[in-house]
């Protein structure tokens, strides 16, 4: 029995692969090609004018502050979802990989989340951002300079090939759980490169 388990474990872990996403768009974020009606892009929601991104090989050096200008209310609940698509024969097809949270603000600083690992841990005015989250007006996101490598570790499943995209959607819901008409939709497109 132990042998079988080990064998299974061995097989499973050989499926786990590390990838890095080779970005298609040097600006990282693209507007959504099939965003929900009324959705706005990242530049309409966040002022990124003071953010500087320098690409050096596969590393993005990010520095500067951003200001959230998303027009929602301080009491709104923010939901987030992330879906992973594969471009196949002219169409973007969904894959089984997705993540969603019904209360983004409550998990923004959860150490086990990708959001934290890649981004929110570099926000220096954490106390203010924990309170205001993404809700404007004019929430400052002050960053310490950080390096971003779009690496997925321990990815399980069939080998990824070709164009893929990550679609991220943020909704703000009012007290009656009615979504505001201006969700944020962004895409990160690229090609996963197998690391080893
Ligand atoms: C970012 O904001 C913080 C806090 O207001 C400030 O101390 C810092 O100088 C700002 N950084 C840049 C690059 O403007």
UniProtKB/TrEMBL annotation:
GO BP terms: detection of pheromone
SMART domains on file: DM11
Cleaved signal peptide residues: 1-16
Top-level division of the source organism's lineage: Eukaryota
Keyword entries, A-Z: Signal
Name of the protein: GD10289
Gene giving rise to this polypeptide: Dsim\GD10289
């Amino acid at each position: 029995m132990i042998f079988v388990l080990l064998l299974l474990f061995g097989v499973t872990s050989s499926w786990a692969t590390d990838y890095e996403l080779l970005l298609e768009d040097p600006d990282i974020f693209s507007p959504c090609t099939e965003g929900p009606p009324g959705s706005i892009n990242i530049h309409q929601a966040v002022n990124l004018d003071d953010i500087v991104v320098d690409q050096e090989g596969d590393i993005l050096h990010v520095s500067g502050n951003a200001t959230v200008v998303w027009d929602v209310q301080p009491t709104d609940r923010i939901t987030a979802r992330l879906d992973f698509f594969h471009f196949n024969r002219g169409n973007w097809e969904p894959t089984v990989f997705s993540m969603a949270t019904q209360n983004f603000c409550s998990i923004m600083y959860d150490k086990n989340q990708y959001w934290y690992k890649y981004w929110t841990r570099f926000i220096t005015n954490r106390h203010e951002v924990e309170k205001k989250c993404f809700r404007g007006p004019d929430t400052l996101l002050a960053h310490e300079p950080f390096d971003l490598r779009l690496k997925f570790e321990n990815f399980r499943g069939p080998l990824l090939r070709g164009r893929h995209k990550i679609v991220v959607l943020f909704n703000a819901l009012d007290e009656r759980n009615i979504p505001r008409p201006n969700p944020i939709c962004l895409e990160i497109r690229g090609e996963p490169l197998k690391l080893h």
